Amino acid sequence: MTTRETTDGAGAVAGLLLAAGGGRRLGGRPKALLPHRGRPLVEHAVRVLREGGCTRVHVVLGAQADEVRARAALPGCVLVDNPDWEQGMGTSLRAGLASLAGTGARAALVALVDQPGIGPEAVARVLGASTGEESLVSAAYEGVRGHPVLFGAAHWAGIAATAAGDRGARAYLKEHEPVVSLVECGDVARPFDIDTEADLAHLE
User: Fold this and answer.
1) How far apart are CA 23 and CA 170, in angstroms?
2) Within a 10 A sphere around the Cβ of 201, how many other Cβ atoms?
3) Which of 40, 174, 191, 200 has a CB 3.0–4.6 Å from the CB of 146, allowing a cystine?
4) Is the peptide bond before 148 cis (omega within 30 degrees of 0)?
């Protein structure tokens, strides 16, 4: 792990960007390096987190991690290597949460690198609904849970224990559904994924 951190006060909400995917349905092109507005997509995603209010950002890398480090400008980010990225997003979520241990962060706001339609407005709304280490907050789109999601530190161990495959925290959130705060973001964001060649039309 590369530790190039900015200094934050204890109690901050950290941005956690999952950017390890290999783009299997995109011909094996890492999603972090897809071009968007003239730069790698991972740079856009980090900027969204920062503009939304996350001063500390951890980025989980996997597919072609060395090339991402070489080509993407990610100053001030903590870059976390996930050697098990091919096993699914759950491994990246576990690696990212583990990297936050001891940082003083009271919550993690988790975003996916392949959702460029989600901007800082949605991040700010989810961030604003956090009440501390017990928080579970999720963006919603017409009432349906989506990203970004915020996990208070009290939930990290439970999430890590259940995160598997590409399901990430889905099982944990379903189990704790009564206490998940949904924040409607459908008026300010579009929650599409960049998964297939057809989806590349969403990039600029």
Assistant:
1) 21
2) 8
3) 191
4) yes
Is the whole-model pTM more than 0.90? yes
Residue 11: predicted pLDDT:
52
Helix (H) or strand (E) holding 123: helix 120-128
Could you tell me which residues come within 8 angstroms of residue 79 by beta carbon, excluding any fewer than 6 positions away? 1, 2, 4, 58, 59, 61, 65, 69
Instruction: Dihedral sign for Cα 57, 96, 92, 157, please.
Output: negative
**Residue partners of 127: CB distance under 8 A and separation at least 6:** 13, 52, 53, 54, 109, 150
Q: Specify the DSSP element, H or E, that contains 104.
A: none
By C-alpha distance, which of 51, 69, 59 is closest to 188?
51
pLDDT digits (tens, 9 = 90+) for 18-48: 999 988 777 778 999 999 999 999 999 999 9
Angle, vertex CA 114, rays to CA 14 and CA 160, nearest 5: 45
- What gap in Å lies between CA 35 and CA 198, rounded to an integer? 15
- Rounded CA-CA distance 166/171 in Å is 11
Q: Which two tokens stand for residue 130?
A: 């956090």
Q: What letter would DSSP give residue 33?
A: G
* pLDDT of 58 higher than 50: yes
